[in-house]
Amino acid sequence: MNVPTPPSPPQIRDIGTFRGLSFKQAVATLVIALGLGAASGVWELSADYQRMRLQVVESIKSDMALVRGTAVEAAYMLSHDLAGEVVSGLALDPIVAEVRLADNFGDVLGETHRPPGVTAFPALAERLFGDIAQHSLFLQTRSKDNASDVGKLELHLDPALMLNRYLDHVAASAASGVARTVILCLLVVAVFYGLITKPLLKIGLAVAKVNPARPGDSLIELPRRHEGDELGMLVRNVNALLAESQRGLDGRDTAEGALAALARNLELRVQERTHELEQQKAGVERANAELEKANRFISDGIRYASRIQTALLPDTTALDGAVAEFTIGWRPFDIVGGDYYWTGTFGDKTVVAVMDCTGHGVPGAFMTAVVSSILARILHHHGHDDPAVILALLNFLVKSALRQDRADAPADDGLDAAICVFDQKQGIATFAGANLPLMVWSDGHMKVIRGDRRSLGYRDSPPDATFASHEVPITPGAIFYLYTDGLIDHMGGPNCRLFGRKRLQETLGHLAGLPLDEQKEKLFATLDAWRGDQPCRDDMTFIAIRPKAI
């Protein structure tokens, strides 16, 4: 019986936490308001800068237009006195640095200079106001039909003085802007505290006083004037949570009482069951002892069968001197297996055979014993020259030995086989296969010779089945490979796929330049790496022969 534990209501033991939160909220609000005020001030300063530039340009143009008539008359009359009055009038503006009035011959009629202004930011002054410092006005007399130049009025403003004027204006604007911003921030903080922070503090203090053991007895009072806003919704939700927690606690107390009674009942039942189990345990231990004894007996028998099966395999030294190089890799799936191989010589001819019998383990080992006996009988009494004839006889005799040549045969077992006969004198290898291929590495290429697509000895195998023979010339350095399907049927790799014939051919092609024993070791290492954590699926047999070439 599972009883859900209700959530414990929140507890806040440090009232200073609320004050800390309130202070942080006020600071955050103040920072936001100051940021908005600063952004507004920057925008206003930019607008003031543009406005001041426009006012300066318009003022200078207005002044020059105002004195244009007098300047034309002074230039036309070549009057230094009138020119001095024009220049002095324009120089009354404090930001004017230089005024010059010249006639159309280049002679200066009037000129005034003022020492350059001093500023802490000369480069900034030139950048902000340098483009409006130079002003000029061509003086012309106009008649009814034509106009003629009589002189030129030039005026130069001081960028430093203009910058100082602008900085004075910026300082005044900044002071007033800061004052406005501070007042606005204080108002915002006060409103925020009154409308949000203070009610939240009251709600937080009320939550801190909730009794965890009886949360339903300490419902929070709804703040005034907040019945319809988010704070009111928060209080209602918290009160609903506290009430639901109280109901859960009451249910838990009831369930705990029921559980206690159930536990007492279960304890009695456990004691009774424990006594029964102790009696059963004694019986199981006796049965386990018998099973261990039987298991040891079976394991010893299988290990002894492995020694017998290994004895049935031919001695690999029988081919010493008959071939240039020879290696065998035989890995049964269990202690014993269903793969079998045979090697031997008959005069100038060498016979190598690989066979994959039905199943693996003990059943497969029994099949290899039958096949071993029948193959020896064929080779010594029926012939060893033609591998196709050997396969045909093997098919017929296995069917007969297992009584699978009758419709009511009790079983359906058989094998796949590949046999290769090397004729050293003729320099020719003859191959025949039943569902197993031959691979030949020669002249840097791998050639695959597939056997017939039929197996041997099964009930549906025709007793008069025939097989095709394939002749392959023995060239210097050529390597002949025979193997069972266990090599290519293992799962593994990044996508958990079969190793496959193509990958086997590529692997042996890369290893072809190595000694055969080293090829075998690296091939099985590659298969183990490919399989990784995947279990072994079948027996594996691999034979590589480098025959002597004529």
TrEMBL record:
A Gene Ontology cellular-component term: membrane
Organism lineage string: Bacteria, Pseudomonadati, Pseudomonadota, Alphaproteobacteria, Rhodospirillales
PANTHER family assigned to the protein according to its UniProt record, in alphabetical order: HAMP DOMAIN-CONTAINING PROTEIN (PTHR43156:SF9), STAGE II SPORULATION PROTEIN E-RELATED (PTHR43156)
MF-aspect GO terms: phosphatase activity
Alphabetized UniProt keyword annotations: Hydrolase, Membrane, Transmembrane, Transmembrane helix
Keyword Cytoplasm belongs to the record: no
Sequence ranges assigned to domain HAMP in this UniProt record: 194-250
Entry keyword annotation includes Hydrolase: yes
Positions of transmembrane segments: 26-45, 170-196
Pfam families: SpoIIE
Protein name: Serine phosphatase RsbU regulator of sigma subunit
Provenance organism: Paramagnetospirillum magnetotacticum MS-1
Swiss-Prot/TrEMBL GO biological process terms: signal transduction
